């Protein structure tokens, strides 16, 4: 299925309808809508140009370089969304993103597509893109929960330590809450599919010409893979981040989020 330039421009004209309705009700979102649309067009336009050449070359080293760039971008975006200091938290977040995407991505490709097709650009790049994109938002929420817990409920940490808990045991409560923040959205997507969550991968594949069983199967596998990668990522991130949260005397640092 191909979209012509004229068809694309006509599709953009659909924005006139919500803009008109919002203006009619004096909801002053015109500037925000135009800014968001412009940012979307620029970002996806540049990404599309880059991906065009990546798919044209279909070279394993180019694919690896692109995946590494996506991982770096995912790490930075996760850190920024969590409102953490990028310099201080780039390492723990990066360890989580890189490790989880690599483990789950390689397993997904080898099991689903086999050794022969695993390095093909049309499988390798989209799968890693889905994984990295899927873990960014949930991991950012989890990190915010973890650090806000340490900031506002630090007395609980000292209470547990004072009652004989080890440092790892005292941090486990905050890590548990962070894991809940990862798990709940992923579980909700799996449970509310077709009711509260649209299976975009499935519909996109059907539009692209894939058969129904392949589209449904891949949608299920993607949801499970993103869930798995999110949990692995936040656990690894928090294990490394705990080294930054506690000083050498076992005390919580006052500037955990800075």
Task: Walk me through what this model shows.
The structure is a single chain. The chain has 258 residues and is mainly alpha-helical. It has ten helices and no strands. It has helices spanning 5-12, 16-24, 30-57, 60-81, 86-117, 121-152, 154-162, 167-191, 200-208, 212-245. Helix 4 (60-81) packs parallel to helix 6, helix 6 packs across helix 8 (167-191) and helix 7 (154-162) packs across helix 8 (167-191). The longest helix is centred in the last third of the chain and has 34 residues, at 212-245. The termini are far apart. The mean pLDDT is 82.
Task: Give the topology, please.
Elements: H1 5-12, H2 16-24, H3 30-57, H4 60-81, H5 86-117, H6 121-152, H7 154-162, H8 167-191, H9 200-208, H10 212-245
User: What would the principal axes of the Cα set say about the shape?
Assistant: globular
| Termini separation | 48 Å
Structural class by helix and strand composition: mainly alpha
Helix percent reads over 70%
